[in-house]
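Consider what follows.

. . .
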Amino acid sequence: MASTQDLKRRVRSITNTRKLTRAMELVASARLRRAQQRIEAMRPYADRMLELMAGVSQAAGAVRLPLLERRANVERVAIVPVTGDRGLAGAFNAQVLRRAFVLMREVEAEGQKAVFFPAGKKAGSTLRFSKLEVGQAWSGFSDRPGYSDAQMMAHAVSEAYTSGEVDRVVIVYNAFVSPLVQKVTVRDVLPVPQDLLEASADGEQEATSSGTPDFIYEPEPEEILARLLPVYVETELYRALLESAASEQGARMTAMRNASKAAQELIDSLTLAMNRARQAEITQEILEVVAGADALSG
């Protein structure tokens, strides 16, 4: 049985750990509020961007643009897993990487080659440790991504696609649902998914038929579409980065709350054991005093 001093040291150590996890929970909670505000402000913009692009695409008709080109023979697929730069966030990083590896196996089962473009130190280090092919990696902005970070990533994947280095680009990230729920999401970024354009275009047609006037485009729709496509890729990546940032803070807040609760339960258990050990020591001392008194009186 551990001595009273050993139990005291353990209680002191776990108490310090609980203070740390509690502080990290409060920091994550504050950052989560800011990240949640950013993603809630971003979502309507991203949806309207898609609707605008769909309307211009419908007006332009059949056009040949590099970012819309669909390769008949897909040989290489770029997978963009978005993780955090740090851990201590529960299964946040692991579930994205697990889904990325499942996607890699699906791609390889079709006779294609997967190449990774990871965002976040956790994804980059895991992929390099696994000796998988990494085209380009980014890190240092998972807590508070900026639009310039999304532009940097979009330029790299768009260049890889238009140059023929890859034939498809897929992003894997945690979509923010609530502080307790993060949903792993897989989205095709390039080529631009035809079903998204058609769904948005159908909405535009319904609005036009209900009395909304048609648009006159200046310059021509083809030129507008060519300018919008790179912005669409940037917007999709920026949205994924913001969703991931909010999800990371939510996951870290929940993980630190659970850690603080577990630490408190362990402290209570050790305190009880410490009190029992102290009681046993006092009882033993009393017995020794009584035995000594009996020996002197005899």
User: Anything to note?
Assistant: Residues 206-213 have pLDDT under 50 and may be disordered.
